[in-house]
Design a protein that fits this description.
By secondary structure, the protein is α/β, with parallel strands linked by helices. The chain contains 13 helices and 13 strands. Bound molecules: flavin mononucleotide (FMN).
């Protein structure tokens, strides 16, 4: 038995206890069938992760509206599931919990960050398009109040279905620029009704969602929220806003908040500077001093925000982003910044990274350091913003491809080039969409 702080159980307000402090962060898998139903590949992937020793596995985005996928291949639960869907969700949950760990479903709606081939006119709080070059996203249309109420109910319906199928908790995704995060930001929420304007109104969609999810699953089932510490954009959701929302979420009976940050436009979640210079955020002096230190370490991107948050709330905080060294993880817990540590990218290759850390491994690999889209000699292409954006997506696709290999073949393929991974993922996504289009058309025209 490890004597690391990471090995300590973590009790949650709802009465559940996490077996240790390491959480496999949510990572979109792209492995559902064209109906959005979980597959044997998802079972294989999550079985490996369950064997890997994390206290909690968070699923990738499970989507509550098929017209607003985060990407082709998402699991979709946008109505009361039929028997076939239920059986598949149960098999997935059973594989993902085979070592007694928790398995929480991340429930989500992509809003304006829905890719154009999925929906050229996605619904969003307001008609504000994603500001990235390349035309990957469509022209959003503002939701009506009735449509917002419907989405809130879909989150609750999905949470209940997951609970009934053996998931041991849910996480509402309100970070990274997806729909609920769009509501929170004054840049993307220009509404003048009860869902827009001051922070209380901008947080209404999230708080209504949390309340209806809690009502659906009952008081003793873990309900978590993933929230940005900030969007890191001028005039966006900032750290002061986040501090307030965390307090409201605590009052709403949330069990755990995962702190991340950024959006597609500003991918801070991956430690990457995006389209704009990161805006200086208002953080307390002490937090700012240690922020410099952790930036120097290029590790633990949000740990200082979490420390300042801990002064406001007593709800457990999961901090995700950049952690690679065991000492840094233990320090985050010892200093009171984090109650649990989220791990993403290392788990795409090393499925047993948590077990290794608990057994004494000092550091996990940073695969991204060795990855680049452009072959040697063409690095100057990164000087163009549009090409840099493509490069960022390419590296993300490399991780998608690793998840795909784990699911289909049971082993990652770290020697795969970013270029080959990008081609593979894009063609798989195209095929999935084509198959889905065909299936949906057939269903509509028997
Ligand atoms: C391949 C991949 C897929 C991801 N998918 C999701 C997702 O579905 N939901 C989510 O909240 N975050 C997602 N993320 C972000 C991770 O949860 C995490 O916040 C991020 O990778 C930073 O942690 P890390 O430095 O340990 O990788 C994804 C990240 C990667 C690399």
């Amino acid at each position: 038995m490890s004597n690391s702080l990471l090995a300590q159980p973590l009790p949650l307000p709802c009465g559940a206890t996490l077996p240790n402090r390491i959480v496999k962060a949510a990572m979109t898998e792209g492995l559902a069938d064209p109906g959005g139903v979980p597959t044997a590949e998802l079972e294989r992937l999550y079985g490996l992760w369950s064997d890997g020793g994390a206290g909690v596995l968070l699923s990738g985005n499970i989507i509550v509206d098929a017209d607003h996928l985060e990407r082709p291949g998402n699991v979709i639960v946008d109505s009361v599931p039929d028997e076939q869907q239920r059986a598949a969700l149960k098999r997935w949950a059973s594989a993902a919990t085979r070592n007694g760990n928790h398995f929480w479903g991340q429930i989500s709606h992509a809003g304006r960050q829905t890719q154009k081939p999925v929906n050229a006119h996605p619904k969003a709080p307001s008609a504000v398009k994603v500001g990235l070059p390349g035309g990957q996203f469509g022209e959003p249309v503002a939701l009506t109040a009735a449509e917002i109420t419907d989405i809130v109910q879909r989150f609750a319906q999905c949470a209940l279905a997951l609970k009934e199928c053996g998931f041991t908790g849910v996480q509402v995704h309100a970070a990274h620029g997806y729909l609920l995060s769009q509501f929170l930001s004054p840049r993307t929420n220009l509404r003048t009704d009860q869902y827009g304007g001051d922070l209380a109104n901008r947080a209404r969609a999230l708080l209504d969602t949390v309340a209806s999810v809690r009502e659906a699953v009952g008081p003793s089932f873990p309900v978590a929220v993933k929230l940005n510490s900030a969007d890191f954009q001028k005039g966006g959701f900032d750290f002061e806003d986040s501090l307030q929302v965390v307090q409201w979420l605590e009052q709403a009976g949330v069990d755990l908040i995962e702190i991340s940050g950024g959006t597609y436009e500003q991918p801070k979640l991956l430690g990457i500077e995006g389209m704009e210079e990161a805006e200086e955020q208002t953080i307390e002096r002490s937090a700012r001093a240690s922020a410099r230190q952790s930036t120097a370490q290029r590790e633990a991107y949000f740990v200082d925000f979490a420390l300042a948050m801990q002064e406001k709330v007593s709800i457990p905080l999961l901090v995700t982003g950049g952690f690679r060294r065991r000492a840094v993880m233990e320090q985050a817990i010892a200093s009171g910044s984090a109650d649990a540590i989220g791990l993403g990218r290392p788990m795409c290759v090393l499925t047993d990274a948590p077990r290794q850390l608990l057994a004494g491994t000092e550091a996990l690999p940073r695969y991204e350091d060795g990855l680049q889209l452009w072959p040697k000699g063409l690095g100057f292409l990164n000087r163009s913003q549009a090409l840099r954006t493509i490069g960022t997506f390419g590296i993300q696709f490399w991780y998608y491809a690793q998840l795909d290999k784990l699911g289909r073949e049971g082993a990652a393929q770290p020697q795969l080039s970013v270029f080959a991974a990008t081609r593979q993922v894009l063609s798989q996504q195209r095929r999935w969409l084509a198959a889905r289009g065909k299936a949906t058309r057939n269903a509509g025209n028997p």
